[in-house]
Amino acid sequence: MLGLNSKDTMLLIVVAFLALAAPFLLNPFPTNSSLAQFNAGYPDLMQRFAIFGIFAIGFNILFGLTGYLSFGHAAFLGVGSYAAVWMFKLLSYNVIPAIILAVIVAGLFSVLIGYVSLRRSGIYFSILTLAFAQMSFALAYSVLSNPKFNLTNGETGLQVYGDDPQILHREGLPDVPHLFGWAMRDNFLELEVAGWEFTFNNGYYLCAVILLVVFYLAIRLFRSPFGLMLRAVKSNQQRLNYTGLNPKPYTLAAFIISGMYAGLAGGLLAAMDPLAGAERMQWTASGEVVLMTILGGAGTLIGPVLGAGFIKYFENIFSKINDNVLHQWFAFLPDGMEDFMVFIVHPFVGKGWHLTLGILFMLVVTFLPGGLVEGGQRIARLFRRRGKKTDTPDPEHHPKETPHVAE
Amino acid sequence: MDAILLQILNGLDKGSAYALIALGLTLIFGTLGVVNFAHGALFMLGAFCAVTLQRLLSLSFETIDETKTDFLGNPLKVKTPYVEGWFGPEVGGAIIDWAVPLSILVAIPIMIGIGFAMERGLIKHFYKRPHADQILVTFGLAIVLQEVIKYFFGANPIQTPPPDALLGVVNLGSWLGLDLPYPIWRLVYFLFAIVVIGGVFSFLQFTTFGMVVRAGMADRETVGLLGIDIDRRFTIMFGLAAAVAGLAGVMYGPIVAPNYHMGMDFLVLSFVVVVVGGMGSLPGAVLAGFMLGILESFASTTWATTTLPGINQIIIYLVAIIVLLTRPRGLMGRKGVMEE
Questions:
Q1: DSSP 8-state secondary structure symbol assigned to residue A401
Q2: Cβ pair A358:B324 closer than 8 A
Q3: Do B310 and A116 touch (CB under 8 A)?
Q4: What is the DSSP code (8-state) at residue A279?
Q5: Where are the membrane-spanning stretches (chain A) (predicted)?
């Protein structure tokens, strides 16, 4: 179907099902139960799942396929957000031109950065992209917000004001981002079934549909000759040179595509909440997308989406847990033990989420370099091994893996 | 003339910090071949060694002074630091006053210990893995260290004043007839950096240990074949690099109040410094550190910021980009280190 083989079609259908049924799937607990705090089926969080999923898919096209580790990808996300908000200010609150401009601007920006950064590889490439992103952050934060030429509105962040031109804005259209009249923040359906509440949000479904489209594009790209070429860059760039192929155009194309994905994610972020701030471009934000991709499994199709969902979900849940919740959890223990357990767990939850994230990150990189996908495969293999004898390839008769030249 | 000299001086303190951190990064990279993203966190840990010592020394007990009364007529409670109780008010007061320089003595063993623990516990397992994995795991470690410090010390900057004697401003140019006011502590920091850098270089240049390490940096395999346990020496070098970063942090406290993310702020710039100086070149790292510090200081003058607004924010990155594109190996990079 759609030029995919049966396995990929299955994957796409599964992802489509997960994305479209998310309001049900993410709300497994009744609203009034004590477990309702683990529900993730509210619009704001679901939108972030989809948006950061797009961001991570895009990052994976660069890192997973070519092996070039960019540490400045958040710059494109930020540029996309700024472009989208400018579209809101100048044209109208319709999200279509905003998202299109976000993708175009991020694409142009990534041509510029990619052309320069890709002249070096390995650690130099990482540092160059990091330097570019930090520079963009500094520019957006202070330089481009001077009164004469206020492009980013500095620390406050760019937002839409009442006296902005909005030349295409007409009476009757909502005063928030909308798609031909459907406001992004509105819910088109709110179901209440025996204690469960499900909200179906316009904005989330826009993000979900776009996620599916770009996921499909990513599958096609992974399976295309172009994708194969990118893998060749990762596995052995030198050999590629010797065969007379110039890898530069391929890596640059991958960089631009992944920059445009990031711009799209940035545009969607602004479409859900018409605000763009410089902190979106900071290097911690770049680190986060690296985390998502690695955690899910770099170089796999579904991995980045899983990683993005995982991190955003736990970020949300963990930040909500405070000492009272912990006391409830450990209430079954004797008093002394209860306090002790709360004392032990306390630094890792609430504001300590980043600590948990850092530890998780180290564990994943150390023990599970393939991320969640590899973990799942290992478990699956464990179960399969019970039935039949393993057929591990004979190491003697396989060539050794050559290290990536960029590493 | 005065203005130019003053800007050079102003760049020296930041340049010293860049140089010290970049020196450690280069040492680790040159010996172990590991890109250490947690190096900024080591700098921060150093600064918090000073904070901790200052707090420990200021721990005090309360006594009731019968001779003095507060405005209600109750006897006044007087807080006396334990140190003053033990050594008498004068010596004790001086010890508290000199807490930051004293922390150097405490920080060296602590930082070397942390360095050993890091190398043996974590980084050892990543020698054979790709650079991307090394970057990622040390990045994770940096987050963890940063969050641990945030948990214990809070998110706000903590003031660590220098000794009273070193507070204030000295006019460096008075004997030349120039007007060069300069904070004493910054001068101390610069001299301290020079001493540390000189110490590291002479250690590598004039001791047998340093000679073996240099040989190992040039050709690890051959040194190993000669029957020398090069791994152990490299571990010691990692501890040394950690100590250098820590010392840079200890003394930096009085210039900028330490907070939990200061390491990351410096790390990004120090990486740029290492790349500009040339990966694997120790003199390059030091030179580029001072150079970029001074350049940044020139870019922060009112003249520069009015002609090109914001140039002070981006000058270092701009220079790095230009250097990498025109001299990919960096200013003093060695042939064959991290090349395509």
A1: P
A2: no
A3: no
A4: G
A5: 45-63, 94-116, 123-144, 203-222, 249-269, 289-314, 355-376
Closest by Cα among A119, A122, A80, A115 to A253: A115
For residue B242, how many C-alpha atoms fall within 13 Å in the half-sphere facing its CB?
A: 24
Indicate yes or no: CB of A361 within 8 angstroms of CB of B125.
Answer: no
Nearest residue of B to residue A369 by CA position?
Answer: B133
Which residues of B are less than 8 Å from A287 in CB distance?
A: 139, 143
Which residues does chain A have within 8 Å of residue B314's beta carbon, measured at their own beta carbons? 135, 138-139, 143
Tell me the pTM: 0.84
Cβ contact B309–A146 (<8 Å): yes
Render A36-88 in DSSP notation, one character per residue: GGG---SHHHHHHHHHHHHHHHHHHHHHHHH----S-THHHHHHHHHHHHHHH
Name A20's Cβ contacts closer than 8 Å, sequence gap at least 6.
A205, A208
C-alpha A93/C-alpha A271 separation (Å) is 9
Q: Which residues of chain B have pLDDT under 70?
A: 1, 66, 173, 334-340
Residues 142-171 of A with CB under 8 A from B: 142-144, 146
Does the beta-carbon distance from B130 to A403 stay under 8 Å?
A: yes
Express the helix, strand and coil content of chain B in percent, nearest 5 each: 70, 5, 20
Asked if B131's CB is within 8 angstroms of A120's CB, the reply is no
Cα atoms found within 13 Å of the Cα of residue B98, Cβ hemisphere only: 13
> What's the DSSP call for residue A94?
B
Most A CBs within 10 Å, among B26, B37, B131, B292, to test the A interface: B131
In chain B, which residues have their Cβ closer than 8 Å to the Cβ of A139?
310, 313-314
Cβ atoms of B306 and B251 closer than 8 Å: no
Please name which of B331, B294, B298 lies closest in space to residue B14, comparing C-alpha atoms.
B294
Contact A196, A30 (CB under 8 A): yes
Helix axes A248-272, A225-235, angle to 10 degrees: 110
Please tell me the distance from the alpha carbon of residue B90 to that of residue A372, in angstroms, as a whole number: 62
- State the fold for domain B2-326: ABC transporter involved in vitamin B12 uptake, BtuC (1.10.3470)
Q: Are B215 and B234 in contact (CB under 8 A)?
A: no
Q: Is A329 on the interface with B (CB under 8 A)?
A: no
Task: Tell me how far apart the alpha carbons of residues A51 and B225 are, in angstroms, rounded to a whole number.
Answer: 54
Q: Name the residue among A138, A294, A352 with its Cβ closest to that of B314.
A: A138
Amino acid at B241: A
pLDDT tens column, A149-180: 777 877 778 888 877 777 777 777 777 787 88
3-class DSSP string for B269-329: HHHHHHHHHCCCCHHHHHHHHHHHHHHHHHHCCHHHHHHCCCHHHHHHHHHHHHHHHHCCC
Contact A362 B122 (CB under 8 A): yes
Residue type present at position B232: R
Give the pLDDT confidence of A184-243 residue by residue, as tens digits: 777 777 777 777 778 888 888 889 999 999 999 999 999 999 999 999 888 888 888 898
Q: How many helices (H) and strands (E) does chain B have?
A: 13, 4
Contacts of A124 in chain B (CB under 8 A): 275, 279, 324, 328, 338
Q: CA of B201 to nearest chain A CA: how many angstroms apart? A: 26
Q: State both tokens at A69.
A: 């580790």
